[in-house]
Each structure stands twice: as structure tokens, then as C-alpha cells.
Amino acid sequence: MASSFKYPDITRSEIIGYLAHFGFASNVTEQDLLNPTRELVENIYTHLLNYLDLIQEDDEQADFAALEVFHNPDLHVSTVPVMNLLHKMRGLLAAIDCPGQFTLWDLIKPDPDRTKLFLGSLLNFCTHRTIKMDELTSLAGELDVFVEQKQALEEKLSQLNAEITQCNELRAREALLVQEEEAKVKELKQTIAGLNNHQVSLKSETRKMKERAQELDELTSNVEFELVQSAQENAHLRYKIVQSPDKLQRALEEKKSHQVEAKNTERAAMQAFQDKNATLELYTKALKKMSKSLEQMKAIQEQANSVKSVEKEIKALKCKLGEDEMLDKSLDAKLVEKQGKADQLDEMKKKVEIECILAREEATKELNNVKSQVESTRNGLLLRKKQVETVIAEGDAVNAKIISVGENAESQCQQLKLKHEEVAKEFMMYSNKVGDVLKRYRVDPPTQQ
């Protein structure tokens, strides 16, 4: 899989800074990178693989298990970890599309330029991986925050729904109370109208009774005046009786007639007085009734006032209901807004989950590729191990032959040396003899003219 990062030219000082940043404990200098040693590059590569979590705890056990296969494991104690590191480095560099091919020679006899290339590739990948992991961590943190906000919004939404349900229940109850109070108000208005009509009729009757009482008072005053006049006439008649009996007789007759008339008038006055008493009693009863009616009117007035207060309360409740409706509308708008935010959070969560799934799939693919490479490399290593074992066996046989041939050659060399010494002695003896003969027959060279 192609990586999304590039391979910029990183200087050796930058490589040292990156190594310190990624926790490489050893103090590495530029001179160390210019003349890299096997131990240094192995430590750096192992540290970076550990940082990338590519070295498992079972690798050492696998190395020991691999050593058990060899006939002489002591000779391969350092070889198996190196081959394991070589295999992991090849798989990692191939996965990140490194332009260079990592070989065993880069571990045993590292070249400065190739080491710089491989370290730059690994450090670039580590930096890229750290950035991506930080982004994923921040996204995961934001996702957790979004989930918490969503839960808080859902709780608040449930609370608002419960409050809306309570408001609706209260509205229904208050609507029933309002209907009952409106029915009571209508009944009270009808009662007030009837009582007002009754009050008007009572006022008219009272007015009539007052007029009748005035008439009776005038009649009573007239009767009293006539009684006074009759008393004066009686006194005058008594005086006349003393003066003239005839006249007195006539006067008595007239008086009798007048007395009859007075008695009739008195009867009429008594009747009028009784009528007046009856009228007074009637007035008293009417007054009691009017006082009762007045008390009823006051009670009705109080009920009307209470009705007005109830109407005011109903208006206040209606205003409150209107405010509750406005609040419900605003809460519905907020609910729609929060639902939109919740949908956005769900979409972001789905996107993040999809990205995580894709990243997991990519990592799984890389892991499968690395595992397949590891398996193929392991099979190759097994074949090479068998070949190495056969070569080692052949080498042991060759070594045995070489040892036997060396021993034979050494014995032959000894013999040849002895013969050489004997030949040399004979040659020396022969040369001495030849020298003596030549001295005898030596002739001086001719002189030039």
C-alpha cells in the first residue's frame, strides 16, 4: 500500500534530533552516522521497530526455537536475531515504499549514505504515524465529547419532553377548570340579571308604598284636625245648652248627626290607621325582604367580584398558556436545532468510524502483507537453513579431507625438505668440486691491443 508521506532529504543533525525525540537513549553524533557501526545501526533499527510495535515478546522465544533446529546453535546465536531484524526491516521498508533495497550488508557493514536513507525513511514514517495517531486521538477525544454532548442533549430532550407532557396535562386540567368557571360565570351573570330585575320591581313597589303612606299621613292629619274641631264644637254646644235648650236640642241633634259622622269618620280613620299599620307591617316585611335582597346583592356582588378575579385569573392563565405555547414553539425550535446537531454528530461519528474501519482495514492489509512476507521469508529461511546445514555438513567433510590432506602434505613436505637438504648438500659438494676443476683449467682473458 502506498504511503501518503514523502522522503525529504534529512540531514544527519536532523536525524539525531529525531532519534532524541523518539526516545533513543544513546548519545549519537554526526561522526557516528558518518562512520556507522553494526552495533549502532542494530540498536537504532531495533529501537524504531519497538517504537512502531513491530517486535513482539514472542520473537526471542522464536529465535531460541529457531536455534534448536541447528546442529551447532552456538555458532548461530548472533545470526538468527540479525536475520530476524533483516526480515522485519525489509518488510517495513517495503510497506512504506522506501526507494532503497535493504540488504544484509546494511546490517553487517553499514554504508553511511544508505544508512542515512533508511533512517530518514523510518523517521519520516514515525513522524507521519505520530501525526496521524495524534489526529486520531484528537478525533477520538472530540468523538467522546460529541457523545457526551449527545447524551446530555438526549437527557435534556427527555426532560423537556417530560416538561412538555406536564404542561399539556396542566393545560388540559386548566382547560377543564376554565370551562367550569365559565359555566359558573354564565350562571352568575344570569342570576345577577334576574336579581337586578327583581330589585327594579322592589324599588317600584317601595315607591308606591311610600306614596300610599304619604296619603295615609295626610288623611290622619285631616282626621286629627276634624277631631279638634269637633271638640271645639262640643265646647261651644255646651255653652249654647246653657243659653237655650231649643237651640241645644237642635244643636244636639245636629251634634248627634255630627257625632255619627265623626264616628264614621273615626271608624274610617281607625280603618285608615289599621290600613296604615298593615301598610307599615307590609313596609317592614318589604324592608326585611329588601335587606335580605341587599345582603343577597352584596353576596352576588362579592361573587361578581370573585368572578371578575376569576376572569382575571383566567386571563392570566390564558396569557400563561400563550407564553407556554410560545415556550413550546421555542423549545420545539431548539429541539429541532439540537436534533440537527445530534444528526451532525451522528454523521461525524459515522465518518470517524468509517475512517477508523478503513484505517483498520489498511493496517490489517499491511499486517497480512507483512505476515505473508514473513511467512515466505520464513519458508525461505527454512530452505536456506536446510541448505546451510547441507553446506555445513559438506564443509565439515571438506574440512576433514583438508585436515587429512594437510597432514599427508605436511609429511610429504618433511620428506621433500629432507631430500632438498640432501640434494643441496650434494649440489654444494658438486659445486665445490666443479669450482676446484675450473680453477685448475681457468685461463686469463686476452689483452686488447
Characterization of the model:
The chain has 449 residues and is an all-alpha fold. The protein is 87% helix and 0% strand. The chain contains eight helices and no strands. It has helices at 12-21, 30-34, 38-51, 58-69, 79-95, 105-108, 112-243, 245-440. α1 packs across α7 (112-243) and α3 packs across α5 (79-95). The protein is rod-shaped. The relative contact order is 0.07. Mean pLDDT is 76; it is low at 1-5, 58-64 and 442-449.
Summed up, what is this model?
By secondary structure, this protein is mainly alpha-helical. The chain has helices spanning about 10-20, 30-35, 40-50, 60-70, 80-95, 105-110, 110-245, 245-440.
Properties at a glance:
single chain; 449 residues; chromosome; cell division
Radius of gyration from CA coordinates? 70 Å
The rough form would be described as: rod-shaped
Helix-strand string: HHHHHHHH
Helical segment count: 8
Largest sheet: none
Amount of beta strand: under 5%
The residue-averaged pLDDT reads 76
Q: Give the distance, in angstroms, between the N- and C-terminal Cα atoms.
A: 100 Å
- The oligomeric status of these chains comes to single chain
Catalogue the unreliable spans: 1-5, 58-64, 442-449
Structural class by sheet pairing and helices: mainly alpha
Would you count the extended β strands for me? 0
Approximately how much helix is present in the residues? over 70%
